[in-house]
Write a structure and sequence with these properties.
The complex is a heterodimer of chains A (324) and B (464). With 324 residues, chain A is an alpha/beta fold. Chain A folds into 2 domains: 4-224 and 301-320, 3-Layer(aba) Sandwich (Rossmann fold), CATH 3.40.50.300; 230-276. Chain A has helices at residues 15-28, 43-47, 76-88, 91-100, 102-109, 113-127, 147-154, 156-161, 168-180, 195-210, 230-239, 242-251, 260-290, 308-320, and strands spanning 4-9, 32-37, 58-62, 68-73, 139-143, 185-191, 215-223, 296-300. An 8-stranded mixed sheet of chain A has the order 3-4-2-5-1-6-7-8, sandwiched between helices. In chain A, helix 10 (195-210) links the parallel strand 6 (185-191) and strand 7 (215-223). In chain A, 51% of the residues are buried. Chain B is α/β, with parallel strands linked by helices and 464 residues long. Chain B has 2 domains: 12-295 and 414-454, 3-Layer(aba) Sandwich (Rossmann fold), CATH 3.40.50; 300-408, no CATH class. Chain B has helices at 12-17, 34-47, 61-66, 95-106, 109-117, 119-126, 131-146, 164-177, 179-189, 201-214, 216-229, 235-248, 262-277, 300-318, 321-325, 330-345, 348-359, 365-370, 372-423, 442-454, and strands at 23-27, 51-56, 77-78, 87-92, 151-155, 252-258, 282-290, 429-433. Chain B is elongated. The relative contact order of chain B is 0.14. The chains are: A alpha/beta (324), B alpha/beta (464). Chains A and B meet through helix 4, helix 5, helix 9, helix 10 and helix 11 of A and helix 6, helix 8, helix 9, helix 10 and helix 11 of B. Chain B: Residues 21-291 form the ArsA/GET3 Anion-transporting ATPase-like domain. Chain B: Residues 354-367, 381-391 have a biased composition (Low complexity). Chain B: Residues 344-391 are annotated as: Disordered. Chain B: This is AAA family ATPase.
Chain lengths: 324, 464
Amino acid sequence: MSRLQVVSGKGGTGKTTVAAALALALATEGKRTLLVEVEGRQGIAQLFETEALPYEERKIAVAPGGGEVYALAIDPELALLDYLQMFYKLGSAGRALKKLGAVDFATTIAPGLRDVLLTGKACEAVRRKDKRGRYAYDCVIMDAPPTGRITRFLNVNDEVAGLAKIGPIHNQAQAVMRVLKSPETNVHLVTLLEEMPVQETVDGIAELRAAGLPVGRVIVNMVRPALLDEAELELGLERTPRTAIAKTLASAGLGGARGAAGRLVDPLLAQAAEYAERYALEGAQRAVLGTHGLPLHELPLLADGLDLAGLYELAGELRHQGIS
Amino acid sequence: MSLDPARDPLDVDALLDDPKTRIVVCCGSGGVGKTTTAAALGLRAAERGRTVVVLTIDPARRLAQSMGIDSLDNVPRRVKDVRGSGELHAMMLDMKRTFDEIVEAHADADRARAILSNPFYQSLSAGFAGTQEYMAMEKLGQLRSRDEWDLIVVDTPPSRSALDFLDAPKRLGSFLDGKLIRLLMAPAKVGGRAGMKFLNVGMSMMTGALGKLLGGQLLRDVQTFVAAMDTMFGGFRKRADATYRLLQAPGTAFLVVASPERDALREAAYFVERLAADDMPLAGLVLNRVHGSGAAELSAERALAAAEGLEERYGERYGEPGAEGSEASGADAEENLEAVGIVDQEGGNVGLRNSSESEAPNSPEANGTSTSTKNDESGADHSGAGDSGASVEQLTAGLLRLHAERMRLLARERHTRDRFTALHPEVAVAEVAALPGDVHDLDGLRTIGDRLASACVPGDEQGR
């Protein structure tokens, strides 16, 4: 199993949720996992209903199987100062650089540097070992930038290649790429069964593959339950007389067939028509996703919205599907 | 169950029709339909007579196609088949192209060539977080100053934080004009490393640190870049400041776009607060993909209970005999069936027919022939009624379950929305009913425009 699992997806598909559920699922198997956030949105803290995460690895959940989930929100500025201190003992100069705007420059403006720092920190956690030579974490899960930016984000080497052909940034980028392109890494894409997210996923798979980055699984999130099957849809929408439905509604105690129950028929059929349209669309999108030779997983839409209990439910579902 | 719409509906048409509205900025987190909203607003405004340009940042291919333009580029293209006297133009921001144009416009040919071929410039213009935001604002400023359109609708970049497009231009502007650049410029200006001696010790230590951090080659690229850009500095910050002021001006209206989900609305709330703090004029919130129901008076609980009742009845009549047998003897079961049939179909006849069918397999064929005429017509009539009777119950139960799911979704969306409106009661809201599929053409955009303008969910409240 890959020790660095990167979770990306179009905005709004719930990649943070899937990343967290994956970390929980792995922890449930007794693994020590680190859930990493790189975009400063504090999505993990909100999901686990804890206060904002600092730039520090902090335990946020203990799983039933005895494993643990740690979380880290990587702050590029602090990661840079960290890095300067670690490699160059540049503590005070670091502060001076900050005053000058150089840190701001390096972390927000200089192309690629920010990404090298973020991926670099995650890779450091992947490779870190304790005193006895064991890995500090069995698995690192990254809540990564969205699909549209993921290849550029991970492909730091290319990004800084034109920029730093030699020197420390170049070396750091090389080290990061060695981890990212190895079998140690897997990039998962989260999507919904809608045209735009699926199109973005398909494009994302192609881009990642072209860059030589390992694509893992496609996770379809928020799948709505199939409430009517095709036969029912056809029957309901094409052939069943409205009066029959009205009578049946009336017999179920929802008012008179020509009164309250009768008035329900049109809106109920309209909802069924919408459902049918979406059902057909979802089927088509599922087929598109199926053509890429990647394992496809589906997570249900949680009826009552997502809370901590729902997160554990999704983690259970991922384990059930053998994803972890 | 009556579902009240948001208390203060946003009047989209009034906003679009007002000639004083010159810029509409759509902002919000990713995946909420920002770009589609921008395109739909642009189309609606054009069809209501205005001359509009829509600046999209990263439109999905299908959205560009929906405007009849296969690939949008950095030049506004007129959209065909727009009804009425207005005009719609659409373009997609090409950040590198926009940056190049600035360089070409502000430097002489040789210098421009030097800048455009500099590796640092190439990465800066193509890649970094913030260029897109800066260039979007730059483009907005350019479009505004051309004054060819009386309304500009802008989509904002899918930033990691929704606020980036307000901050990034300033950040880039101040970087390009700032102390760091001047420091980097100093050695290049006075002749390479020799210039270092004019700097004080602290400064040279920092340049040393910078060299270590960035690598010598990168530092030299930056220095060359900076030297070449020399004459252009000052301009960046000035333009960033000008665009920022343009956003605060009375002709500008911000629309925060969200979907009725927790994360999207939380981001929307941040946005509302930030816009207020920056004195940016907020017109309202567009809440996309809101679900409604024409049968909202039927609650999820009642619908589910009714569906279960129907399924139970269906199961009893057509389900496995074993299950029935456990409850009653064969004869009793038959009586039950009869009773159910009678109650169910309000005609004794039908009930009797039902029970006669259940006997049919057992009855000798001779029996059948004796009543052949009657059986034939009633049989044909009946087998249809029997089959669809079963299926109608099954189908109706399905419709009810579908409705229960819809009502639960609706309640959840409403709850999420109400949390936002409780926090920001001052914000006008336009709710856009969810479409089952994606937008593929101008008609799709028109439908969204209609839904935007009607500002309430169809079927949400009867008679509205």
